[in-house]
Amino acid sequence: MSSVGPSDAYLTRFLDLHPKEIDLSLGRVERLLADLGSPQASLPPAIQVAGTNGKGSTTAFLRAMLEAAGKSVHVYTSPHLVRFHERIRLGAPGGGSFVDEAKLTATFEEVDRVNDGRAITLFEITTAAALLLFARNPADVLLLEVGLGGRYDATNVIAKPLASVITPVSLDHQKFLGDSLGAIAHEKAGILKSLVPGVIARQEEEALRSIEREAARLGAPLSISGQDWQAREEHGRFVFEDGDGLMDLPLPRLVGRHQIENAGAAIATLRGLPHLGVGAQAVETGLGSVNWPGRMQRLASGALPALLPEGSELWLDGGHNPDGGRAIASTLAELDERSPKPIVMVVGMLNTKDSDGFLEAFAGLAGRVYGVPINSSVAGRSPDEVVHAAERAGLAAEECASIAEALAKAAKAAGPVPPRVLITGSLYLAGEALDANGTPPA
C-alpha cells in the first residue's frame, strides 16, 4: 500500500477549510496567491489544457514531445492515482520527477500559514501550492491541466498562456457546469484569452459553436481539428496534416484510436509555437516514449496479473463517462479483432457518474462484469448498484468485495482461452488497482 507522510496530514486539514469539496470560483485562490506574492506572475511560459476526455493524455503527449526536444517541463494534473505528489511534476534537464515529500510538505506549511484558516477548497489551496513550486523552480514550459470546467477553475489565473487547448467536450459534471454540451463547452472555453492561440480538438457541433462564440468575443484565434488540422490513422501509421504540410508518423504508444486525436492536439499546439523548437524528430520520439498511467494501461507484472491464468491480459483504464466508455469499448474491439479473447470487466464507479451510459458501450462486447467497491471515495457506488447498472445494459454481472476477489472469480470461470480483463469505471479505482499491484505511477 502507498505510504503516508506529513503532507497527507495537511491534505486532511485542508479539507476542513471549506464546507464543499467543489465550489467553482477564482476569488479565494486569487486572494491567497496575492498574499503569497503572486507566483502566477513568475511562472514559466504555460500551455493550459481543458476538456472532458483526453486532457490528461494530451498533456502527456505535450510533455513527451517537449522533453524529447530537450526542454525542462513542469506539469500540473489531477486527480492523482495513488499519491498526491503525482499532480506536481517538476521539470529538469533530461526529464522531471514528482515533487518530493519534503518540498511538498514545506510548501503546504507555507500556504497553510499564509491562508490563516480562511475558507478555501482543497483544490484551490493545493493549486496555489503547486504554482508556488513552479514559480520557484526554473523550467522551459509549464503544462497546466484544468481540474474542472475552465472559467472558474483555480488554474485559470494565468493572464497570458502560450496556448489554450480544449480536448473533446462531453456530458460530465453537469451539476457544476450545465446540463448541455453547449453550456459545458462555454465553461471550458473560459480558458481562452485574447490573442492567445486556442487549439480545439474534434468536438460535437453544439460544443464547437459554443467555443467559437466565446473565442470571437475574446478575440482568441482558433486552430480547429477537421478544419485547420487533421489527425488520422492510415495503413498502420499516424498522419498529421495542417497548413504547414503532412507528417507521416508511427502510431502513438498510448493504446486506442482516440489517442490519435489527443496526439494530434498536442502536435497542433506545438506546431503553432515554433519558437519552442519541437521538430519532427522530437514529435516522433515523444509518440514512442509517452507514458500516462491508468489509461488503457497493460499490467503485465505485479500482484494482480498473478491472480489470472497464464496467457491472460490485464488492462486498466480510469474512464468513467459515456464518451469515455465508448472510446474504451472501441479499443477493446480493436484488441479483440487482432487477438480474440473472452472479455471480462471489473467495474467500480462513483455515484456522481452516469453508470448506465458508461456500461451501455460494452453491451455485446464483454462476457461478464464484476462490480466492485471504490474504497478511496465516499461517493463510490456499491457493487450491487454497479451490477444492476450492468444488467440494465444487457451484461451478465455479479458483485465482488474487491478487485482481487473479482480477478480470482474471473480466473476460476476462465475457459480454454485465457481472458482479457479490464479494470475500469473510475480513476479512483485505477489508483487502487495500481496501489494493490505494487506499480504506482513514477
UniProtKB/TrEMBL annotation:
SUPFAM superfamilies given for it? MurD-like peptide ligases, catalytic domain, MurD-like peptide ligases, peptide-binding domain
**Cofactor(s) required, per the database record:** Mg(2+)
A GO BP annotation: folic acid biosynthetic process
Its keywords, alphabetically, are:
ATP-binding, Folate biosynthesis, Ligase, Magnesium, Metal-binding, Nucleotide-binding
Q: What cellular component terms from Gene Ontology apply here?
A: cytoplasm
Report the residue ranges that make up the Mur ligase central domain in this protein.
49-269
The record's EC number reads 6.3.2.12, 6.3.2.17
Q: Which PROSITE patterns match?
A: FOLYLPOLYGLU_SYNT_2
Where the record annotates domain Mur ligase C-terminal, the positions are 311-426
Function text: Functions in two distinct reactions of the de novo folate biosynthetic pathway. Catalyzes the addition of a glutamate residue to dihydropteroate (7,8-dihydropteroate or H2Pte) to form dihydrofolate (7,8-dihydrofolate monoglutamate or H2Pte-Glu). Also catalyzes successive additions of L-glutamate to tetrahydrofolate or 10-formyltetrahydrofolate or 5,10-methylenetetrahydrofolate, leading to folylpolyglutamate derivatives.
Give the family, as the similarity comment puts it. Belongs to the folylpolyglutamate synthase family.
What is the recorded name of this protein?
A: Dihydrofolate synthase/folylpolyglutamate synthase
Q: What is the lineage of its organism?
A: Bacteria, Pseudomonadati, Pseudomonadota, Alphaproteobacteria, Hyphomicrobiales
